[in-house]
Design goal:
Length: 369
């Protein structure tokens, strides 16, 4: 456990009271500490004769700087983000009547796996920074960054095996966990295949993000419910909840990459256009635009980087073809599906974790960062 104040990743706001502090009936400080303990336990396996492996992992996870020195709580919170996926697993366990302690190992596994994918994504995308810090590959090079990602993948498996469930349930969780990982990698393969192509459809993109983004959120909700003691039928409804949350999360990200100002996201306004990213709004625009507008769009996206005047042109096209309004509707529809699935999973029951999940779905639908 860490003795510094842990901030609530469910809200992004500080938890001011120590001990069993409860907000809205959920001990968020307890959830954060349970998760940290399990992550630390899994990372202990990286200790040994190659200390750089642990240093890289802890740096990427926001625990230390590149020298291995512990960072302040504010920096840690910024780098780690909201940690929605692992908290969703623990809340799902509580929502079905289980204990968050039981779901903490699988929650840690989810967080470690997610960060393994981020390290490798940063290498593939040549991303120089993540959350205002140099990425692992930029600090230590591609080869060592691959090692860091591989180490986190192995650590995620060790965390999962600590889940206090019967052997057959643990085996079931492990199989689903690895199938989910394959789904994420498959989504990344599709993502890389889509780069530079003008014939990618919105349907292609939605298939890609269903694997790359939604699969891990689906697993988190399902696994938490399983560990909490839910029946297979109820757990599947939680999986549907997570699936819809994951889709809505990525669709909202696509909107923020174009229509959110720098003070909200930490990125330049319309940064995804500047980087020529083929996100869903751009694909929707390609489907709707006139031949002349498509030709102009192709010309702009053939540049190494789109300049401010070009960005304004693309924004004007998006406005003309009403893409933003339709994107917002898709985000709202995804979160409505999540709420419906959660209500179906928890019919006839009520507890603070269910209320927290409902509140989480509502907030995610309108988040600005």
């Amino acid at each position: 456990m860490h003795d510094h104040r842990v901030e609530s990743r469910l809200t992004g706001q500080p938890t001011h009271r120590e001990g069993n502090a409860r907000q809205a009936g959920i001990d968020r400080l307890l959830l954060a500490n349970l998760l940290e303990r399990e992550i630390d336990t899994a990372l202990d396996a990286l200790n040994g004769t190659a200390p750089l492996m642990l240093t890289m992992a802890r740096y990427h996870l926001g625990m230390t700087d590149s020298s291995g020195d512990v960072v302040n709580p504010e920096t840690r919170q910024t780098v780690q983000g909201k940690r929605i996926r692992p908290f969703l697993a623990m809340l799902a366990a509580e929502a079905v009547g289980g204990q968050p302690e039981a779901a903490a190992p699988v929650a840690a596994a989810i967080e470690l796996l997610h960060n393994f994918t981020l390290i490798h994504d940063d290498i593939q995308d040549r991303s120089p920074n993540r959350r205002h810090r140099p990425t692992v590959w930029r600090v230590w090079g591609n080869a060592q960054a691959i090692n860091a990602g591989d180490a986190l993948f192995a650590a995620s498996q060790l965390a999962l095996l600590r889940t206090p469930t019967p052997a057959d349930t643990t085996l079931r969780l492990s199989e689903a966990f690895n199938r989910m990982t394959i789904s994420i990698v498959r989504g990344q393969v599709h993502d890389l295949e889509h780069e530079g192509r003008a014939d990618v459809t919105p349907g292609d993109y939605l298939t890609m993000i269903h694997g790359k983004t939604a699969a891990i959120v689906r697993f988190a909700a399902w696994a938490g419910a399983i560990v909490g003691g839910a029946s297979p039928e109820v757990a599947e409804k939680f999986a549907d909840t997570g699936d819809a949350i994951g889709m809505g999360f990525q669709l909202r990200d696509d909107m923020l990459g174009i229509w959110s100002p720098v003070e909200e996201t930490g990125k330049d306004e319309a940064d995804d256009i500047r980087r020529r990213k083929q996100s869903l709004p751009i694909l929707m625009l390609r489907e709707r635009a006139s031949d002349d507008d498509i030709a102009r769009l192709n010309a702009l996206f053939s540049q190494e980087e789109i300049d401010p005047d070009g960005i304004d042109e693309v924004l004007a096209m998006l406005d003309h073809y009403q893409v933003k309004q339709d994107m917002q509707k898709q985000v709202e529809d995804a979160h409505a599906r999540a709420m419906t699935a959660l209500q179906a999973a928890t019919v006839g029951t009520n507890n603070p974790a269910i209320d927290e999940l409902k509140d989480l779905i509502t907030r995610l639908g309108s988040r600005t960062s």
